[in-house]
Specification:
alpha/beta, Rossmann fold, six-stranded mixed sheet, 5 helices, 8 strands, 23% helix
């Protein structure tokens, strides 16, 4: 498996640098941090329900996909985008190539690959499926088969 990177800043869709805070720091300082333009990093074990009422004050949310065997990041992305209609960016970090299509279909808007994948062509992994068998947050361009 690749080596996970720890990040404190990330580029948003407009290539602007955004400071990131941990989920725990966000929860402990929500009144102060909700007034700043910061993003929050959410680990698979973090309870996204705790930030549900504060989504409007977040510029972006970063989900950590380092553990290949842990699918909670997909559920978190789905809740944020589909169920709670979060309009900001959802960025998947520490991504494995094999996770890209599932991340995108769950509602992740962009991703940062693990260092070991940098330089590889991820196009087939991000856009390699043309058929899907279930509804998803992002089925654009996919033909649904049942």
């Amino acid at each position: 498996m690749g080596e996970a990177c720890q990040i404190e800043r990330i580029l948003n869709k407009d290539y602007e640098s955004v400071d990131l805070v941990s989920f725990q720091e966000w929860i402990e300082n929500i009144e102060k941090l909700s007034k700043l333009s910061v993003g929050v990093i959410i680990a698979p074990s973090d309870d996204v329900f705790l930030i549900k009422d504060y989504l409007d004050s977040l510029e972006l949310i970063v989900l950590d996909f380092n553990n290949f065997d842990d699918g909670r990041g997909y559920s978190q992305a789905y809740l944020l985008r589909k169920r709670w209609q979060f309009l900001g960016e959802v960025i998947g970090i520490n991504a494995h190539l094999d996770q890209l299509q599932f991340m995108i279909r769950s509602g992740v808007t962009s991703y940062v690959l693990l260092d070991s994948y940098i330089g590889l062509n991820e196009e087939d992994y991000a856009n390699g499926f043309s058929i899907c068998y279930q509804e998803a947050a992002n089925n654009s361009g996919l033909q649904q088969k049942y």
